[in-house]
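ARCHIVE CARD
Drawer: 12
Card no.: 0347
Subject: one protein chain, sequence and derived structure
Cross-reference: see card 0346
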Amino acid sequence: MNRLKRPDIADRMIPGNWEGDLIIGKDGANACATLVECATRYLIIVALPLRRRADQVCEALTRRIHVLPEGAMRTLTRDQDPEMTRHQPLTPGTGVDVLVAHPHSPRDRRTNDNTNQLIRRYLPTGTPITSHQPYLDAIAYELGNCPRATLGYRNPTEAFNQLIATTH
C-alpha cells in the first residue's frame, strides 16, 4: 500500500493527479464513486450498481479510467475506506499509481472533499444514491460546466479539454 508520495500538488497545478472517494447513500445501502482531477476540477461520477464491495469498486473505476485519454490520469489518491482496499489491480490495468491518503488528513484530498460537497446538493445525505449512470453523468456534466474563480472563470470541462489538447 503506497503512502502519499505523489508530486507536491499543493498549488493543484500539476496535471494528471486525481483524488477519489465514495459517496454513501441512505443506510449505507448504495453508493457512487467520485474521481476529481486536481488541476482542472474535472469530475467523473461512477455508478456502483452492485453495492460497494472492494473488487466491484476497482472494476467500476477501471472501466471509467479506460475511457480517459491516455496519460490523463497518472495518480489517484484515495482514502482508507475498506471499499478501496482492492486497488492493486487498478495500477497494472490502467497504468495509474494509486496512493493512499494519511488517516484523518482531509488536506490530502481536499479537491475531492470540496467536490463531494457540491455533489451532495444533488444527492443529499440520507437519501439513496442512484445507480443510473446517465443521471450521475448529468450531475458531473452540470458541475463540469459551472465557471470557477479558481480556474480564471473557465469551467472544469474547458480546463480539462485544454489540458488534454496541450499534453497530447
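Annotation on reverse: The mean pLDDT is 84. Helices lie at 54-65, 90-94, 110-119, 133-144, 156-167.
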